[in-house]
Automatic annotation (TrEMBL):
Annotated ranges, domain DUF1731: 270-305
One Pfam family, short name: Epimerase
Protein name per UniProt: TIGR01777 family oxidoreductase
Protein family membership: Belongs to the NAD(P)-dependent epimerase/dehydratase family. SDR39U1 subfamily.
Chain ranges of the NAD-dependent epimerase/dehydratase domain: 3-221
């Protein structure tokens, strides 16, 4: 298959590009800064010659959007919104204009669309969409609006021959440098991998190999459309999540952090506390109902595998053949 990945140069794009290329597919990445074969320039806002790559392709997986690993200033929040909405809009325009449109368009979204909650998990059918929770920062609500507008733009696209799926993805855990797992592992190595603000907030995650397999599953299943949660079935409180990671890395102690300490740490990392403090209790209702099986459903085993791979004790990402 020919697979086009707009915005495919980040961590998640690298995971997909590597695995899908190893599987024998022709992968083309659309990027603002092409630097190698199979990368094509686009600006993420306007139709251009890049649209020829979409015409005649089999699959489009749009990952484009300004990184959330930044301070949530008004300017950065606007950039997050604009980059996601504009890229989804122009991808839809390219598909609509194609003489031979792709059969499926997977649009990246985020598990952040769900409410901050501890009481029950969020699946696609019964999950609570966020934005109206009491006593949460305004910018948390803005993050939900970004996700909603992201999905809405895909839904508005006039692409009757192309099936559309919104990937409500949790944090993708891979051993690649600079990814979220690498950052968390770095905190553990420094002795800072303890509970944050009590650690009751839930962490939703997905192992990179299961993320790839879920994408392949959704590409193959012509009967699945709309929002799909890409998250392992075992979310867990942050205190337990970090305790497991410390055990996998052989670090016995992790200093706890109060909320204000987390704010200082996020400032130092040029990130924001939403990534640490929002409770994302998300489960993969549709994937499980449709028969998808996870190779890494629980965090203890997944953490051990990721640590081994990060240390080079096993080979590069393996493409699972079953779905």
């Amino acid at each position: 298959m020919k697979i086009v990945i707009p915005g495919g140069t980040g961590q998640v794009g690298a995971v997909l590009d590597r695995a899908l290329t190893e599987a024998g597919h022709e992968v083309v990445v659309l990027t603002r800064r092409p630097s190698r074969d199979r990368e094509v320039w686009w600006d993420g806002e306007h139709l251009g010659t890049w649209a020829r790559e979409i015409d005649g392709s089999d699959v489009v997986i749009n990952l484009a959007g300004r990184s959330v690993s930044c301070r949530y200033t008004p300017a950065n929040l606007k950039a997050m919104m604009d980059s996601r909405v504009h890229s989804a809009r122009v991808v839809g325009e390219a598909i609509a204009a194609a003489a031979s449109p792709p059969r499926v368009w997977l649009q990246m979204s985020t598990a952040t669309v769900y409410a901050h909650r501890h009481d029950a998990p969020n699946d696609e059918a019964t999950g609570v969409i966020g934005g109206a929770e009491p006593d949460v920062p305004d910018y948390w609500s803005y993050s939900v609006e970004i996700a909603k507008n992201w999905e809405r733009e895909q839904g508005r696209a006039d692409t009757p021959q192309t099936r559309k799926v919104a990937l409500r993805a949790a944090m993708v855990m891979s051993p690649d440098r600079g990814g979220v797992f690498d950052v968390l592992s770095g905190l553990v190595r420094l002795g800072l991998g303890g509970p944050v603000a009590g650690g009751a907030q839930y962490v939703s995650w997905i192992h990179d190999q299961d993320f790839v397999r879920a994408v392949e599953f959704l590409v193959a299943r012509d009967d699945i459309a709309g929002p799909v949660n890409l998250a392992a079935p075992g979310p867990l409180p942050q205190r337990a999540f970090m305790r497991v990671l410390r055990a996998a890395r052989g670090v016995p102690v992790g200093l706890p952090a109060t909320k204000w300490m987390a704010e200082l740490g996020a400032l130092a990392l040029r990130s924001d506390t939403e990534l640490l403090l929002k409770s994302r209790r998300v489960v993969p209702g549709r994937l499980l109902a449709e028969g998808f099986t996870f190779d890494h459903p629980q965090w203890p085993e997944a953490a051990v595998d990721l640590v081994r791979r990060a240390r080079g004790e096993v080979g590069s990402i393996r493409r699972a053949v079953r779905a």
